[in-house]
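Teaching assistant's notes for section 4

Start the section by putting this record on the projector. Ask students to predict, before seeing the second block, whether PilZ domain-containing protein will look compact or extended. Collect guesses on the board.
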Amino acid sequence: MDDSENRQLARDSLFLMADLRIDGLDGEHRIKVRNLSSGGMMGEGPVRVVRGAVVETAIRNIGWVEGSVAWVQGNRFGVAFRDEIDPKVARAPVGGDGEQAQFLRPLRTGTGHSQGVSLRKV
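Reveal the predicted structure now:
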């Protein structure tokens, strides 16, 4: 994709923490993901990256995603992913299938004995 095609992708504004690896450097850097689309992301953090650098980002519920730095401005930078992702997966609860958990608690019906306990959804 060229630059004009990248700007047409829908981006989700969000705030996620992620880990970033930079090709050729040791270690991982903790960054903030400010927006995310199927083709890339905007990251922010105290890490020095240069345009064209190959990076990998650990995105919640997705895993490590490879890409290259498309732009840098101060402590923010854009990453164009090598392969498209589904950004909605990153918004889902961690380890969940996207459905809300159902919690139950006992409801006492006045007797205080276990016979008078029923369950209701809260």
